[in-house]
Amino acid sequence: MIDFFISYNSADKSWAEWTAWTLEEAGYSTILQAWDFRPGSNFVLEMHQAATEAERTIAILSPAYLDADYPQPEWAAAFAQDPTGENGTLLPVCIQKCDLKGLLPAIIHINLVDLDETAAKGALLQGIKRERMKPSVKSAFPGSAQRSVTEQPRFPGALPPTWNVPHNRNPNFTGREEHLASLKTALGSGKPAALTQAIHGLGGVGKTQLALEYAYRSAAEYDIVWWVRSEEPATLAADYASLAKALDLPEKEAADQLLIIGAVKQWLEQNPKWLLVFDNAKDRADVLNYIPRGETGHVLITSRNANWRGIVTPLDVKVLVRKESVDFLLKRTGYTDREIADALSNVLGDLPLALEQAGAYMEAKGRTLSDYLNMFNVYKSELLDRAAPSTDYPDTVATTWNIAFDEVKQISSPVADLLNLCAFLAPDDIPVELLSSGVQYLPQSLAAVATDPLAFDDAVDPLRRYSLVEVTAESISVHRLVQAVTRDRLDEDERKKWAEAAVRIVDKAYPFDSDDVGIWLVCSRLLPHALLAAEHAEALDVASDSTGKLLNHTGVYLKGRAQFAEAKEMYERALAISEAVYGPDHPTVASIVNNLGDVLQDIGDMKEAKKMYERALAIDVATYGPNHPQVAINVNNLGSVLQDIGDMKGAKKMYERALTIDESAYGPDHPDVAIDVSNLGSVLQDLGDMEGAKKMYERALAIDEATYGPDHPTVAIRVNNLGGVLQALGDMEGAKKMYERALSIFTEYLGEDHPNTVTVQNNLDSLS
Fold it and tell me: Less Cβ crowding at N or C end of the chain, within 10 Å?
């Protein structure tokens, strides 16, 4: 006979497969519908035969199993054969918390709830044995045993190998079963129109929590679950592009972020079993170009915006139904009075965020449902008397926030100060180290705890207990509505104080050389905080010097990632602020004007780029004199745009002027001189002076080889340029050697798919 027939609901298929695999690996035989019932067979007869031929029946217990009709005859048949349980014919295996009724509670079951894979395997293999088992060391992770399936099932409790979900699973998640079922049915249908779902609704209704719960429940179905913060286009692009590193794509280190995004999208279009979550997207235009084509994976979008129909399938999420609200409060607090819970749910508007804050307060303070209901009514009356309700969030959130915050303020000043500061940063992933690095800009009470890990933990803990923040070892996250209420309850002077502190600490932390590829990871993490802190500072007109500098640095980073439109916006905002602070002719203004010209040139607006370069040049000449190295930078840039618009003689004149300045300042063998010389070679080549261009390229190559060594990517640029002019001169053998050398360097440092490598490969191919 077969050892085990495994009875399960289709929702628990992954658990059933893991169980069967584990048992067969241990030497037992199993019958499993997913593996053994073939197309064309009679399902009822197959089930009957399996139950008859198997010595024992394992029932995979979950709420889905108990609610379904057809599994009942399967376990009932096993129970009928062995009603006393003497032979262990029916063996329940519990994988989720269940409300067992009828005959099942009397049968001792194997409990796998909340166990990791090693513990679950040990519990299963020990539980199926009939003899007394003395505890022993658990066996190692399953090896390479094979059967008729091609791959060992992943342990259902394990997360996918590629996973970046920023939030822990909510242990108090309640309700939304209809929404979760709709998502699972739609995404699992395979129909192209249903593979992208947009969860929309008002703030605080639990859109993100719904997406989060779906991701955790369905983790076994995916190899990749990738969370993309989508509130700002720049952050969306950075998070999406970061998947390239997790996938180890060749383009992962490319300077052009658009190239990385394209590579990620192409990979997703060609590979299955992935889930993308675009969280808090503002508009469908922001995410449309990031959604992979085809039917290989699934996409979830959360948004307050309801306008998604036409490109994705919308799922409207409203407040909880009353029963779900009541169930949540009772589960969250441990109380049992449904009548009072119903009354409290009513005044809280069934809003999940307000319910969670109320539950957290009652847990922290030991208050009853009645106590909190009375407090809520008092606080709500005071709030409504104080000011008109906000249109940004429900008054229920404001009331629950005030109840919690009044308690927090009594604990210590740093606790309240920390929440005030976080309200002026981006809501997710606020680095803890951000506070300690900018301690000089914080009020004394908060500065004292920012540099003391123990004191900082003490300050964060009350905010966590009252569900005002989420905390990890490295970061803090705050719900957007909590931030909004926090800001609104500050007077204008306090708002200015905290907006200034926020923008100054981010400005200090944001890397100055933000066009350096090596620090882009830091820039990417700080980017959402830079954008939000600058926005608040601009609106309140504080810390203009730091705000202008921060926007300029974010522009440099975004330009480096080829996000030219976003970079242009940053430069324009920085320019307006810096002109107001320093006046129109300050060198700080010249630097931003020069950067703006650079990005205008990138997007093809040569006329405006030329104006910017000419303005920057005039300011720096007036500031430093005509022969300063800073002036040489402006002159070089002006030469570049003149060359782009076809004014070769004008460009040549600019490059020669820059070369004269830098040679005078640095001597003939400085890397900046190599740049000038190479630029001059380029324009000479465009003018048809190939011999002159060859001399310039050879000189630039010699300088850079002496500076960087023979195998540096900068050297490869010079080598490729020299190959181009040799090809134009008809020296194909010499050109071939140059291209091959450049190709070797680029391939080693940048990889085969980098744009520079591809360009040189094309140059080499053109010789044949």
Answer: C
Phi, psi dihedral angles at 544 (to 5 degrees): -60, -35
Residue 694 burial class via C-beta count within 10 angstroms: exposed 0-12, middle 13-18, buried 19 and up? buried
3-state secondary structure 191-241: CHHHCEEEEECCCCCCHHHHHHHHHHHCHHHCCEEEEEECCCHHHHHHHHH
Token pair listed for 414: 């740093």
Query: What pLDDT score does 597 carry?
Result: 95
- Given a cut of 70, is residue 204 above it in pLDDT? no
Average pLDDT value for the chain: 85
- pLDDT of 137 reads 36
Side chain identity at residue 663, one-letter code: E
Contact (Cβ atoms closer than 8 angstroms) between residue 612 and residue 593: yes
User: Going edge to edge, which strands form the sheet with 430-431?
Assistant: 430-431, 475-477, 470-471
**Predicted structure pTM score:** 0.66
Of 147, 178, 173, the closest CA to residue 331 belongs to 173
How do beta strands 224-229 and 430-431 pair?
unpaired
Task: Check if the beta carbon of residue 436 is closer than 8 Å to that of residue 451.
Answer: yes
Backbone phi, psi, residue 203, to 5°? -60, 140
**pLDDT value at 418 more than 80:** yes
Tens digit of each residue's pLDDT (9 = 90 or more) over 654-664: 999 999 999 99
With a CB cutoff of 8 Å and minimum separation 6, the contacts of 70 are none
Mean pLDDT of 443-466: 85
Spatial separation of the C-alpha atoms in residues 710 and 590, rounded to whole Å = 36
- Gyration radius of the chain over CA positions: 32
Ramachandran angles phi, psi of 710, nearest 5°: -80, -15
Q: Which of 724, 708, 646, 626 lies closest to 675, judged by CA?
A: 708
CA–CA separation, 484 vs 423, rounded Å?
A: 7
In whole angstroms, give the CA distance from residue 503 to residue 545.
10
- Rounded-to-integer distance, Cα 593 and Cα 584, Å: 10
User: Which span out of 300-309, 511-520, 709-718, 741-750 was modeled with the highest average pLDDT?
Assistant: 709-718
- Provide the pLDDT confidence category of residue 141 given band limits of 50, 70 and 90: very low
- CA angle (316 as vertex; 314, 321 as ends), nearest 5: 155
